Amino acid sequence: MSRFTGSLAVQRLIFHQTTLRFHKSLYSNSSPISQQPISPNSVPSSLTVDKILLNLKLGKSTHFHNYRTLTPFDIAQILYQCRENLHLGLKFIDSFLFNCPNFRHSTLSLCVMVHMLVRGRRASDAQALILRMVRKSGVSRVEIVDSLMGSYDQCGSNSGVFDLLVRTFVQAKRLREAAEVFKLLISRGVLVSINACNSLLGGLVKVGWVDLAWEIYRENVKYGAQLNVYTLNIMINALCKDGKMGNVNSYLLEMEAKGVFPDNVTYNTLINAYCRDGNVEKAIEMMNSMSSKGLRAGVITYNSILKGLCTMGGYSRARQMLSNMRQTGLCPDTNSYNALLIECSKKDNVVDGEQLFDEMIHHGVVPDVISYTSLISLFSKKGQLDQALIYFKEMKDKGLAPDSVLYTILIGGFCKSGVMSEALRMRSEMLESGCLMDVVTYNTILNGLCKEDMLGEADQLFDEMLQRGISPDFYTYTTLIHGYCKARDMDKAVVLFETMIQRNLKPDIVTYNILMDGFCKQGFMEKANEKWADMVHRGIYPNHISYSIFINGFCSVGRLNMAFKLWDEMVKKGIEPTIVTCNTIIKGYCISGDVAEAEKFLAKMTAKSILPDNFTYNTLIQGYIKEEMMDRAFVLFNQMEYQGILPDVISYNVILDGFCRQSRMEEANLIYKKMIERDVNPDRSTYTMLINGYVSQDNLKEAFRVHDEMLRRGFVPDDKF
């Protein structure tokens, strides 16, 4: 029976056969590379061919010169004649390839060698020759397929050669060409094995060419291929990748009707996909149903659920599931613990993080770089850098190499704590270990330098970044702009802003707010207005922070009318004012000497459910004291406590200073005692005000008493009283 036939029923039967025979009529209009009658003029080296064959049979070596006179056609003829003596053919191939490695083969000569090598079970050598054809300039897939088919019978080959052809294209990552070869073979009546098809399907799904994978899959079904569980798992993965989870059940039923049933890999793929899509409950339901199919959930299954639960905020359930794993006889692995450690790091949960890490060690689970990174990140964010460094050292002692991510985390911890010397030392260690700094690392250090007003060093680092070919991003420029605004160098900040735009990095509301705040704090309201207009022109609209910045700016320069105009505009636009905005208005009233209006505004904001804070009351109290309305200031001080807002050291100092300035030292002393009773620690200003108050009353005895107490608490007095 022919393997190449137009009958679908016959094709389904012959798919299960392991040998191929070709219908002679297939080659009635065959290509030039197919088997053709041999012309006498085409074999000028027939004597050489006979001599080589004789030497092979006698076990004699052939002179290099004789090999050089051979043509690709001669190679094919020699191997055709070795059909019944495979050992002889393979011996010739080895000798020829060794002596003539740069020989210019035709597609046919390579195909004949491939057939012989496949017969000799030397798949890797055969694959190397197929790769030569694949990479050969001007050789089409049609030519390769037809050459292999044209020389098939004469070489006594087997169907594995076509499987190998498809696999080679797949392994060379030429997936579209592999699909084309598959279709060519189908069109010529050749059905490759399901394993080779699976290789192609898996490759297509992996790179995301899901539609083409389904096309190949349907061809397999059409010609009656014996699909297996590997096919099932690949196509389930295709459905998951394509987000077509609704088609999963119908496909599983379709495959079960074909006698192909899901295995652990199928369930793990689906469970992982459901977790990735946030449908953890469906994933858990699927895991629980595995036992009814005679399957048992494994560590990989649980790990997907653990990760899914943590991602969806179900950390407590994840911890419980970790315990359940042990109860079912499963030992959680490093990935199991890492899922929870990562979540602990995200939620700054130091206690659980340490407990999990200790439990991990106790059960003999070896932590990896991710485990240590999660734990070190926890301590770095909390400012517990000594503890972070202990784990960092332990990790290195165990032979684990820190990566760029871990170094950046530690650098960020030191920057956040303002310990730039240690941050820069860690950077040096990072570079010495061979880890490269990326834009995130540079941004982290730049942010630390700008926070500590080390702008010279920040400039140097920025230049280094450019020299190393690392492109600054939005955060780089915004960080530097913030640094220069803080340093009141608005010219430099503007230059950086303009450079940012020239590099097609679009500033956002944060960048504009930083720049406008810089101008407002220096009283450059017109320049701030220009940036506001530019911001709106670019389609970026002000938020409550933008309004707060301008309201504060106008209040600071005494333009309360403009501040209130902006307030009204903000409310009209439906932007809810925050306590920061309200405090700015109160501060503006107090600066202008209208404290009574400020207090009225306090009532308005409270009516809008915007609760005052320490800053609100401190500003009002200071405003009344400035107006020498000490009694009203003291009423507000008590009101503050009554509303549950605990006065801080600033609150106490403000009211205490007011009493001292009015020489009301008895009240001042009562405030001081109350401060001590409430566990609010006095600062240097507290003692200085009391000393000055007693000195103004010529009460040097009390002044020296306070002076001595000040010394006992570790403060250095001015001593100018």
From TrEMBL:
The keyword Transmembrane helix does not apply. InterPro entries: PPR_rpt (IPR002885), TPR-like_helical_dom_sf (IPR011990). It holds the Pfam family PPR. Keywords: Repeat. SUPFAM superfamilies: HCP-like. PPR repeats lie at residues 158-192, 228-262, 263-297, 298-332, 333-367, 368-402, 403-437, 438-472, 473-507, 508-542, 543-577, 578-612, 613-647, 648-682, 683-717. The keyword Repeat applies. GO terms for molecular function: mRNA binding. NCBIfam families: PPR. Belongs to the PPR family. P subfamily. PANTHER family: PENTACOTRIPEPTIDE-REPEAT REGION OF PRORP DOMAIN-CONTAINING PROTEIN (PTHR47938:SF46), RESPIRATORY COMPLEX I CHAPERONE (CIA84), PUTATIVE (AFU_ORTHOLOGUE AFUA_2G06020)-RELATED (PTHR47938). This is Pentatricopeptide repeat-containing protein. It comes from Chenopodium quinoa. The gene is LOC110700964.
